[in-house]
Amino acid sequence: MNQPTITLTTDFGWADPYAVAMKGVILSINPAAHIVDLSHDLPAQDLVHGAYFLSGSVPYFPAEVLHVVVVDPGVGTDRKLLFVELDSHRLLLPDNGLITLLAERYRPTRLIELTERRYWREPVSTTFHGRDVLAPVAAHLSLGVEPGELGPPVHDWQRLPIPQPRYEEKAVHGEVVYVDRFGNLITNVSEIDARRLFRPRVLMGGQSLEIVSTYAQAPAGRCVALFSSSGFVEVAVVEGRACDLFDAGRGVAVSVVEV
Amino acid sequence: MNQPTITLTTDFGWADPYAVAMKGVILSINPAAHIVDLSHDLPAQDLVHGAYFLSGSVPYFPAEVLHVVVVDPGVGTDRKLLFVELDSHRLLLPDNGLITLLAERYRPTRLIELTERRYWREPVSTTFHGRDVLAPVAAHLSLGVEPGELGPPVHDWQRLPIPQPRYEEKAVHGEVVYVDRFGNLITNVSEIDARRLFRPRVLMGGQSLEIVSTYAQAPAGRCVALFSSSGFVEVAVVEGRACDLFDAGRGVAVSVVEV
Amino acid sequence: MNQPTITLTTDFGWADPYAVAMKGVILSINPAAHIVDLSHDLPAQDLVHGAYFLSGSVPYFPAEVLHVVVVDPGVGTDRKLLFVELDSHRLLLPDNGLITLLAERYRPTRLIELTERRYWREPVSTTFHGRDVLAPVAAHLSLGVEPGELGPPVHDWQRLPIPQPRYEEKAVHGEVVYVDRFGNLITNVSEIDARRLFRPRVLMGGQSLEIVSTYAQAPAGRCVALFSSSGFVEVAVVEGRACDLFDAGRGVAVSVVEV
User: Fold this and answer.
1) What distance in Å separates the CA atoms of residue B183 and residue B197, rounded to the nearest whole number?
2) Model pTM?
3) Counting beta carbons within 10 angstroms of the beta carbon of residue C116, is it exposed (0 to 12), middle (13 to 18) or buried (19 or more)?
4) Which of A189, B19, B110, C137 could lock onto B85 through a cystine, CB 3.0 to 4.6 A?
5) Contact C91, C7 (CB under 8 A)
6) Which positions 13-72 of B are in contact with C (Cβ < 8 Å)?
7) Per residue in A168-221, pLDDT tens?
8) What burial letters (b/e) apply to C168-204, b meaning 16+ CB within 10 Å?
């Protein structure tokens, strides 16, 4: 990599100067940093959405990239700020459960609590650690600072109560865990689990849905199930919004059953 | 160009990890790629809007840039994925009409159907060819792969039914084809056609509008016509939203006439 | 800096091709330019919001960066377009008050009116000077053109009527000047002024609010005051939106008083 890449993921939106202040701080310390926006439009303070966003983003990036994540309702409290290595992926983020899903998939090989203030921006505000701690630490890491210099190792981290599916012999019972921009309902029933069943169908909101291979395989307006690009059972309305049809968001029950 | 530039244009929004997965795939294959966001906020699955967006974007870029575009309601069907050269501009996108307007302006000098799976990401999902086909192909092109290696040449492409204006001796009749963020109504009557008329006025929704040279030339609230920065007749309300005034979107009739 | 960085701040949104046309023009003139998006989602034509956005953004960036800003309701009128140096920060923007707050903090050391058309894109539209003047001028500056070649020096600039707080012996009276994405109400009473008072409390909408050090210090739903990360008194609802509670936007009165 000919220049160090730092990605930013926040719930700050684009209309306020918060994400921008982080960019400025990074470039002030390392003008050669290559900043890539992952998102500034995460739903405000929604840790579960953030955890799913990261699990759908970070795995695709090469190992050299450093990911800075700020969804931080507990800013200013005693929640820790962490440097995390998950296999080869590296993140800087608050210890509030954002890594829950990534940590189910990758082994956290190193966690460090950020305590060394010489890598921070002074004075440190009580409400904006993204600007005053995470951004300057990211810039220093991109300049070659060793993670071990940032603070002491820690061995545990916060986990979100992510719902797990329940298994029967001929069924898997799960729920909607993520609603995307297109109104598609993504569940926590994996494609692998669903494919173990013989001729599986998907039950949601009193409907029994066939599993198709892509959206355009059914007529417009038809509600279908399919396997999402992230490997989970998804309910969609062709050229429509499943979330409106079911008045459904996270938590709505879904079952995949043999018929 | 000291590094290969790849632009991304999608309707994925910023809150979901889809556009981000494409960035990760590109950087995993070519860490030196310079990714520029054109938009991830195109109206979902709106091919006409996408075609206008591209015709207002691509012409301004230098030839070395590679544009990846994903508005793809037909993902997973037998619609083709294409590499397209339009004069010196280069795009990767589904063959669903997105290039209709660009292809009216530039001669498509080369079209290649993407079939060579060795440049794809495996396994290829049925619902996310942006991540699994277009992104890896873009990265390989940026590393020097010849377009001819991507698949066979093709000689035709899908076209959208873009409305054309109707000409009379002293009038041009068209319609609104694009509504922008400011609520301005952009029509398909070109500045060149309108200027051929003697003292042209613009008729829309029962109003006869004078053509001014810029927004601030009329008082706030006044509905005016002017020539848009893209070279078409546009209807605007000074410091207001013309689309609200006319309750108007695409398809509303407009006439430019001599008075 | 191994490549020249140009930032873009506009109210163009991401769905239309306007901001993108600026990126293309810049890269066409200087393919090595590194473009960083600050925002394209500023509230349309809102100069006061733009001025606050810039005052919360530009100070964090290193001096070598060039900031291009387009919030330009007067485009096509005789309002000037300026190159501005504020200490070491450099901006290109319309002379419509956008620099009001920055100019209170930094000394404008150099102002140049853009008049030299050889650095512009021809033909110059009457409604899109961002694309036809600011973007090409930015690219030429990034290639080493001296600011003095762009036009004649000027010695004054437009100012917005930014409200100033009123001081009493034991109180400061101000108002809300900015509402952020989280619904937090940021006022024009500075932390320094508030801290001069003995045991200050914040009065707004009939409520008397204690000043806490961070959001999570009070229970969810509680309305509190605190010092914003930009150094001003801010009113927030823990895990809620203060702007909804007070049905409040810019202009709502706030007082900080001794009790």
Assistant:
1) 26
2) 0.94
3) middle
4) B110
5) no
6) 34, 36-43, 49, 52-62, 64-65
7) 999 999 999 999 999 999 999 999 999 999 999 999 998 999 999 888 888 888
8) eeebbbbbbbbbbbbbbbbbbbbbebbeebeebbbbb
